[in-house]
Structure formats: C-alpha cells, structure tokens
Amino acid sequence: MRILIANRGEIARRVIRTAHGLGHETVAVFTEPDAESPFVREASRSVLIDDGSPVQSYLSIEAILDAAKSTGADAVHPGYGFLSENADFAEAVLEAGLVWIGPHPNAIRAMGSKIEARRIAADAGVSTIPGFADSQDSQVLQEAADRIGYPVLVKASAGGGGKGIRIVHEAEAFPEALASAKDEAMRSFSDDKVIVERYVTRPRHVEVQLIGDRHGTVIHLGTRECSVQRRYQKVLEEAPAPNLDPATREGLHSAAVTLAKAIDYDSAGTVEFIVDDDSGEFFFLEMNTRLQVEHPVTEFVTGLDLVELQIRSAMGEPLAIGDVTVSGHAFEARVNAEDAWAGFAPQIGTVSDIVVPEAARWDSGIEPGNEVTSHFDPMVAKLIVGGPDRETARLRLVRALDETLIGGLVTNLGFHRWLIDQPPVVAGRVTTRFLDETDLPPQPDERVAAVEAAAHWVAAQDRDRGLSPWYSLRQFRVTPLVPKRLVYLQGREIHDIEVTSNDPTSLAVVDGRRVVVGIAGHSFTFTALTQSERWAPVQTGAHGAATTVSAPFPGVVAEVRVDEGQEVSAGEILVVVEAMKMLHPVVAPGAGTVDEVRVRPGDRIAGNQVLVTFKEQE
Amino acid sequence: MKVIQSAIDTGSGEFGANRETYEGLVATLHERMRWVIEGGRDKSIERHLARGKIMVRDRIDMVIDPGTPFVELSTLSGYGQYEDSAPGAGLVTGVGLVHGVPYVFICNDATVKGGSLLPVSIKKHVRAQDIAEQNGLGVIYLVDSGGAFLPLQDEIFPDKDHFGGSFYRQARLSAQGLPQLSVVLGGCTAGGAYVPALSDEVIMVEGIGRIFLGGPPIVKAALGEIIEPDDLGGAALHTHVSGVSDYMADDEAEAYGRLREICETTSQRRIDDRQSWIDWVEPESPLYDPAEIYGIISADDRVPFDATEIIARLVDGSRFSPFKPEWGESIVTGFGRIWGHLVGIIANNGIIFSESALKATHFIELCEQRRVPLLFLQNTSGYMVGRDSEAAGIAKHGAKMVSAVANATVPKYTVLIGGSYGAGNYGMCGRGFNPRFLFAWPNSRIATMSAQTAQTVLVDIRLGGMKGEDTSPEQVEAIRREVADQYETQSDPYYATSRLWDDGLIDPIDTRDTLGLCLALAARQDEPAPGPRVVYRM
Description:
heterodimer; A: alpha+beta; eight-stranded antiparallel β-sheet; 36 strands; B: alpha/beta; eight-stranded mixed β-sheet; 20 helices; 17 strands; globular
C-alpha cells in the first residue's frame, strides 16, 4: 500500500516510520519552506504542494488529492491538525477511492461540533459538564448561567485553542463576557455560537485513548494526563493519569468506550474529560477523532504502535491486540521553538546541532541544518521518556532534559526543565490553571553559559592540541587573583567574568567556532571569536582621517578636480600632480568635505605642501 | 618507575599543625601579591582608568590566547623597598602564549610611579630578556613608562646591566630571530624611546602613545619651542610621518588585535612543537595531592622534612626512580616526570656530605650525558664542616658538584623548598648558576648561613675584635640581637624575591604546574649543544 501523509514535521516522520515498518510505501506532501526537512527525504516519494501559503497548502483538499492521484497513493493518513478532523476531507478521500486512515466521516462530523458532541454524550449517559447550549439568546443564556451557578464558562461552540472563552464569576459580569466571547468567536471561527457551562475550580485534563476497528470493537488504552497547559495548549503529558481513585479511572474508561460506541467509532481517537481534583467527578469535554500529539506516552505504557493500529483498522483488519495492560509510566515534553522568557514568543532559526540522549524517544521533525520558519506551529519535536513508575520516569525526564541540546534555535527545553521540578508536577496534582497562575523564575544567566561555552571551547582546543600544560592548565596563574577570562561572543560581548572553575560542568557541542552549551535544559549557542578578530580594526587604512592632503613629491599641479565645499568619497581624485613626466593622482584619504583648495593648475609645488584641506569631521 | 610510598600520616596532629602554619604563609603570600596587583595606589589606578587605559594584567589577558596560562615572574619585586611605593617595581613580566607561541611579556605598570623604572625594575626587565634568550622566546613590550626614575639615575643608567644593558639585549635578541614587538601605550621618553625604536614592529595607540627623545619640557628648555606632546611624538606623527611606528590603533583593544595579527606571521615554533631530544610521555597527575606539601613542611624550620615526600607530590603519578638511593642519602637523586617531561631531580635532605656531593655530581653528569633536564630542590644548611669532613676533602668534593652544575648544558630549574645556605646554594644551582627559572617557596630562607649560626659566629668575631673592651652581658646580647635581626631580615624570602634573587615566590601547590610550563618552553627548543662528556664514577 502507498500511504500519502497529509501532514509534515514530526508526525509525518512518525507515520513514515511505522508505515515503512509494515512494508508500505509513503508519499510526503511538502511546501517550499520544508523542502530540506527530513520527512520529505524519508518518505518513499515526495510531492511539492502549493496552494498559496504553506499552511494553506496543507489545508487544501484539492491539492492533497491531486498529489495522491499523481503519486498513485492508495491511502491517506492525516496526522493531527490540518485536515485531520475535517469530515469533508475524509469523505473526499473515500470518494476518490482511497483508504482513509481515520474514523468514518460521520464520527468526525458528530464530534466536530461541541454542542453536537455534548448532546451525543448526554444521550449515551456520559456525564457532561452542567451547561447550556440550546439557545444563543442573551437573556436565555444569562438565565442558564444563573441556574448552573457561578463561576461559569462562556466558550465558543466551534472553538479550540483557547479562543472565544470567558470565565464569569458573577451574574453582573455575564452580559459583557458573553458579548466579548461571541465577538472573539466570530473573528476566530466565523461562528459566534457559544455555550455556557460550569466552571470547575480545580480542573484536571484527563483523556482516554481509544482504538476501534471496522468490526464494531472499541477498546480503551488507558488514560493520559494533560493538565499542564498554557493557555489551553498542552505542554507536558503523561500516561497513565496519576492520582485517580480506581472508581474514577474505571468510570473514565467506560464512559469513553460508551461514547465511542455510540458513534460506531472505528479508529484511534481520544475522549477528553475534565476531572474535578477535589471531588473526583469527571465531565466529558470533547472527543478528538484522530491521532493525538501525545500518543507516544500511551504507546510506552501499552507497548502498542497506535499508527500501526490505525492503519490496520483502516484496512479492515479486526483488532487483534488481546488484553491491553498498562504498565509503567511515561512523560512527553513538547519541544516548541519558543522563548518562554519572552512571553513564549515563537522563535525561528537554523538548527545547528541536536543532541538527544539515546535512552529517550525523540519524535522530531527537524535535523541539523533545517530552518525553522514561522509558517507552521512552533512544535518541532517531542521528548518522550518512560520508566517503571512515575517518579522514575520523571527523574529520567529531568536527566533527558539535562542531556538534550538544540543549537541555533531557542526552544522551551529550559522551561520544561524548570517545569518538571515544580511541586504540583512532582506530586502529580496539576490543574489546567497551574501554568497560567505560576510565574517563571528568572532566566539562567547567559554569562554563566558564556563562561561554560568558553570553557568547552578551550577544552576542545586542548583536545586538538595535545597534552601541553600550556593548554591543559587553561588560565593558570601564580598570582592569587583569578584572571578575568575575556570571552567574546558574537552579538554577545562578555567581559570581566571571573571563572572559579577550570572544568566545564555543562553539556556542550563544540564544532569549530560554534559552541552550544546546555545549562538546566537551556541551550545557548555561541560563536567563539579569536581575539584577533575581536580586536581587528573594522577597516584597515581607515586611520588618519587626515584633515589635510599633501603633495607626495615636488611637481606641478596639472589639474584640480574639486571645489571648496564639495563632498568627496574615499579614493576620489582631488588633484593631479605632474612630476618626472608622469601624472600622479592625489586622492582623498577618506570621505569628507573639502574645506580649502590651496593650489591652482600650473602651480609649482613642494613635496609635502598642503594641497587640499578637509573640514573637521564630527 | 615505581610509585613512591608516602610515609606521611595526613591525619596526624603534626601534619595538621604544619598545614595550618603553611596556610598562613600562603595567605600572606597571596595578600602581598594582591597588594602588588592593585593595592596601595587607589588614586593612581583611578586616574589610569579614567583616561580609558587598561590595567596592565588585563592588557596581558587581552593579548594572550584566551584561557591559557600566564607565568608571571617576580611579582613581588620591589616589595619592602622604596618605602613600599613600588608594587611589582612598576613592571609585569612573564610568559604567555600568542597564537600558540610563547612570548616573554615586559609590561610597564603605569599606576606605579607613572611606570618609571627603578633600579629593581631594570633588573626585572633585564632578567626577563635573559629568560627570553635562554628559552628562545620573542618579547612583547607593552610600553607605558615615564622612563628612568631620575632621583635614582645612578643605579639605573650607567652600569653593565642597567638601561644600556636592556637595549643591548633587545638588539641582540632581535638578531637571534626572536621577535621584539612593541605596543606604545604611554610615554616613551628619552631612553624609553629606544624600546619601541629597537623593536621589529611597533604599534602606537592614538591619544595615549608617545615617543620622543626629548619631551616637551626638554624641548622648551633646549630650544624654547612650545609644542603639544602629540605633535612632538604622537601616534599619527610616528605612523604617518616619521615611520618610527608601523601601525596606529584607535584604542588599546585594536592594538592588541593588531599585535596578535603580527604574531601570526613571526614563524616561531608553537608551544606544542615538542622536539625529539626531549623524553616525554603522556602526563599524569601525582598520586598524592600536592596540597599535602603544606602538612609536610615542618612549622619549625629546625625540624627537617623528607625531600622524597615532596618529590612524590610534584612528579607524574608520584613515580620516581631513585639513583644510588643507599649512598650519600642526604641528597636524593633520581628520575621522575613533570607534565610528561623526564627530569633528573636533585633534592636535599639537609647537610651535604662528601658522599652526597659526589653522588649529586655523578647524577648531574648522567643527566648531562642523557640530555635530561635537571631540577634542583634546595633545602640545605650547606656543606658539612668539621675536622672529619675537611679531612675527607669536602671542599674538593663540593667543588666537583659546583663545577658539574656550572657546566651542565641541559636546561636547569631550581626551587628553594627550604633553606638555601652557604655553598649549598652554589652546588644546588643557585642564582649564580643560571638555572632557566628559579622559584622559591614562602617558607624558604636564603643566606650565607642561618640566623642561629650567624649569631654564634658573628658574635664571637665581634667580641674577638673588642679585646679588653667592656663586654658586658648586655652588650653581648645587643650584638647578638643585631646579628640575628640582620640575618632574619635578609634571609626572609620576601627580602630575596624583592631583589630578584629568584623569579618569584610560588605556592607549593602551583610548583608542579609552573615547572611543567617552564619545561614545555625548553621542549620546543633545539637540543642545547653538549660537550663531549664521560660519566666519571666518583
């Protein structure tokens, strides 16, 4: 089978890996910014798609189906995001006679609308958050809110990504919140329908992974906790969800399966719940009818390959995985190209180095040399680490973060390193509000990184230079003052740093002049300059911005080419002197304005006689 | 080579007490070095910095390869002299790398008497040039000097190793192909003008660097001409008109970049270009911690300590192959490695007897023939006196050792680890015997004899000369006190290092590294020409 992957980056590679393992061929569709990305190379074939912008191309059903046709693809895997939950696309794929590696379009459609999804859930007896969605009339919505009891949440029906959501703590604030939520919903989704629901004060995000086949079987693969969120975006996920009493866990499992069965679910999917950490109550949130970003943690604790199960289901094979047991614990850190200490601003750059510990699973869309652009989502990779129990897995993630380096690109690895040690994370009692309510500590001192980088650089030079004490002893002095190590780093000039240790303690990659140093998960990229470069004059011969130009030797002025007040550039001919039957140009030593011309053509001049003067420069 | 089995009990009370005493000595050493580096002259440092000028040691850091050693020499020169007004004698000298090539640095400290050269400064300057010659090193001069300190001109100007001697050396070093490079960062007046003028290449920093044979005051006195210093000898004049300077830099930073660029073209051997005559293997750290030396050296300098224990903390892997260990035991001789370099070590365990002198002589000849550098660790009260010793011919045996040391052509290095008394100083390669480097520990003592011996000897002599006069116990005591004071003062290591009798006091912990750096300098040189030599059995 030839599977076209209607996606990019790490998930495209993830699907390629399993597809090739099963003996299938793959087709990558890519856009110009991704031409050098590994998924393009790793796929059996690749097709450039171009439908306007790069993102638009991946949202273009037509472009992707054209690609499938031109490459003779038999099946389409949508990955996550883009068209993965677009029922029209699924239908179009099926209509084109291709295998759709996902649930049937009606299931997608049913779960695509929050209102519809909640109705189906309620009908199936799955508890939903007390809420109201039957009217868009402001007055009716207000009454519903009053009935549910504050605090309530107003959120866009078609929403996602945190858009069009308002928390209302009292009745008086409701009308304004409603208006602004509708306004934002309209702008974000071209649909201002909203729902009102109870606002859970200690909410956890727990989800259940499901897998179904085309023969009516749906089973759950355990829970995942995704409560660590920043503005409703998941940051750190784990499986299974910790600190759930058995009844709650069982309830979640069976609710998810019940819901899936209600829509004849037949692929991999996830039912998301809000769990009230105080009461253990849980409420259906939504169902994602696709593979999730965080599926690897489930794979770790079940030993299954979810992409494989998706493919097999899509091909009509019955599920044949027997009893699934969840054992061990796994974490996934989403690695985003963003600067947590600059308001999580997305970052771009050319990746120079990637160092990842072998023990960790690294699902990544990038390789050294790749450029990360602003066209797509900032998530560039996922770091997945597991262990026999939660604390072991957590400590392994700590270590993995300490041992991971990405050069040339600012990522949130340092943020993860901070996060993984936060008490609620350590305790497994994070609510979805944790990150939004917690301040980041100060960013690690870049100067420390600079010193470490310099130490690594010097150490690397030592390795190259052999074992002379003149290198091994580094900044040895017989005097007691620790010498100031003068480190000059491109764009970051660092002076007067006292070095207390000769030995670098951090992780680093040194490649020529480039040093990428990792401190507490943060990767700092530096370029070491030799001191000659650092101190070199910008331009040789730029000195002596002389204010006078003199005759080089005695002769006769043949020509005067400038007037007083004239601006001249460096090297411009000012005067021509005839001597020894040759004409010699006298040129301006630098740019400037002529102040005075002291000679005229025909004048006999002495050597060193001043010919032209310039105005003093600022 | 076998690992030395140390007999030191680092948990003993004696060890602890010794260590505590020694830590005090090192604290004093460091405190005094700090004073040299930045003490006692706040105003002048402030003025220097206010002019945008950089402190001398920071200048050196800007020139040398980043993160590499700098072996500063005679940091405490001038200490206790000139009413304590001349930290470091206003000069910093040492050895550092530029583009992997070692150079001697001679740099004025303009925060000390405006960089004026005192008698000790000249001695330090000349000594650094001698080190350059012996070790085959180019010299970088960072010139920021007011010239000779005129109130003491008689001790600076006329004699063989005075100012003239420094120019003589500079010219001859250049002739040997050892680059002489100057950066002019301040005044270079009169004689001072010749430092850059005799250099192979010269950089001047605009606004601060000036060169003239006669400064504006002299010009005014001689010619009645009033002229601005920059017009008389500024960077622009000398770079664009006179050609005294080859390059002009806007600021110090640019000058050091230029200097480093020049150093890329000097065709000198790099420090790691080890020559084949040197016996070298991969270095290893000593098995025993060099810091334990603090606890080994007796707090009471009359209580001896075992040189082998010191050697164990200096040599690679604490491995040592003793030569003739069961004969002449008051001198320890044998082979070890320092930072990979094979060295022949000669170390005292107190008094030198005839046998010890003969053994040392034999060993020196052995090393000379095998082309193995020599390391002397001095801790001796001198050659044995007394009837038996004289009758055994101690004078001629001691003389053999002195002759052997004087004529050895292999690189020699000396460290004063304890007493350096009497002729023991000669036989153990004291300053007069031209070791390439001579360092001293802060517990060391150097004099013709110890203060205790001196009291007895000199009091007797003085009393002998006062026959018949009043020799009351009070007077005897006064004489005794006077002699003791003189010897105690003059044998003090700070007295010695202040006068350049050594190349610097160093912390015992730094000794192995310092020696390793020095040996590496010799290792890049051609083999010194040996004379034909047989090993005489003594």
